[in-house]
Input
Amino acid sequence: MALMEVRRVTFAYKDKPVLKDVSVEICEGEVVTLLGPNGSGKSTLLKTIIGLIRPGQGTVRLAGRDISSIPQKELARQIAYVPQFHRSAFPYRVFDVILMGRMPHKTFFFRYSQEDIDIARTVMDRLSIAHLAGRPYTEISGGERQLTLIARALAQGARVFVMDEPASGLDYGNQLKLLEHITDLSGEGYTFIKSTHSPEHALWIAHRAVMIRKGAIIADGCCDDVVNSETLLQLYNTRVKVVRLNGSLRVCVPEMLKDNGAEEGTGRQPMFVRSGTSRR
Amino acid sequence: MRTGFVITGLACALVVAVLVSLVLGKYPVGIDDVCGFFLWKAFNASVNLSIDRQLLENILLNIRLPRIMAALFVGASLSISGAAFQAMFINPLVSPGILGVLAGASFGAAVGMVLSKSWFFVQASCFLFGFLAVAAAVGVARLYKGNSIILLILGGVISGALFTSLLSIVKYLADPYNQLPAIVYWLMGGLTLVDAGVIRNTAIPVVAGVGLVISLSGYLNVLSMGDEEARSMGVPVERIRIILIVIATMLSAITVVLAGMVGWVGLIIPHISRMIVGPDNRVLIPVSALVGALYLVAVDDVSRLLFTTEIPLGIITSLVGIPFFAVVLKRAGKGWS
Output
């Protein structure tokens, strides 16, 4: 049985429909990537999955239970949310931010116990960010911040991670490191539901891709089957070739880029060949 | 370790400040007499005092101590409300009056002074209208569904403006020879009218309120990460926010009952405290209470001793606070970004 089940969910902000009859099933240990253009409803779907948004119609179930019937704290012990844009007005220490993840395990009046502190230290070690403990959260790099939030999600004790564009704003190296961490954790049985703007990230680490356009799912399945030129054209309105490298790995190559053949180093032409955009 | 050290240090400084303030005043009382008197009172110890016990009791217990306690309460209450609001509204420029409590309480006090000669009535009206103003602010936010941060602040602006103009009407209608000066003087802030009775009535709510905010301070960190994130960590955001708003309103309204309008404390003290111990609210909240109490006890000493007539407390908190804040502003940025 699927771990999470989104069934016929419909949602609208005021009278603007955002999700139209969306159904997705997610199994334990899967890495599911949501792909879709800006404003397609990816974030809304993620927020529905973690219960931040109540769907207008339809249900979201976790292990067979409707999440609207699960108490907030209990839900937080099972599903963690790693938000897209991180607002931070006060420079809390990284360690204090990770400790916040222990909140769903505490009573109304609480103090963090030695156990909470130990757990926070363990998850930091696990992601090799122990050295950041005392640093202000506002002064670390984007990649470190993303790892801090993942550490907090781990401290929460959740088995399902919902991440809204975790790679956005990270440099290339940090994006790859993030993907590596996600792969490692999914190998240990954690489930990831994440959105991204990069189809390659889906191809590289996700088991499944779910494509959303204008609030409706247009494709759902194994990445290698689903991520192809036609679906990408539908989503992004650009022609992209999905090229298979020697092994099973695939990459995306926009067709607007011209390949000049094998003459390396000699008189390379500009790669962009779009007509009519020359400023001369 | 360091925070424990800071808190102990501040607590000791506060005790010293209270003792020194008991000594300071028009009637000369030595520190040995003050200490001796309290030893005698508390433990019935046999001590030699150079001043008549009855007189000493009158000076210390009926005149000076209530006033010092009031300064302590006002400083701690304003600072703690300010610090809690700054975290809750994710904005370091927020002060306790953001939801209109000070405007409402001032209006209430003015109405009380016009309508009645009873001091108790003035205080009750002050307290009541402080709550009413905040209820109006929250009500406006609710009207447009939910109590999101921005709606609450807008509600506070509306309610504050409303009660400020209502206050002007009361001032305009007040008898210009007796009532108007009383209202104006009250609004400048001061502890002249505090007596032991008021302290007895306000002590429990103030101590309970401060204690509650301290015990809920762990939530403030996560609230300042934004509503969605807090909710995703299982925090009942709306409920915690309303509880904190009610406590902070009660504390702020009590400060107006005790001292009229005392400006700037609720804004500056949290910043200064943040410079000392950093932004973690679990430490910041108790430290703010201590620093605020210390500041107000010291400022009140200045206000009653600097000149032969007393200067209103609110004027000094602003006059001392503003340049000090301007000087530390650069470093104060360390606590927020």
Observations:
- The radius of gyration of chain B is 20 Å.
- The CA atoms of residues 104 and 132 of chain B lie 7 Å apart.
- Chain B touches chain A at residues 87, 90-92, 215-216, 218, 221-222, 224-226, 228-229, 231-236, 278-280, 334-337 (CB under 8 Å).
- The first helix of chain B runs from residue 2 to 23.
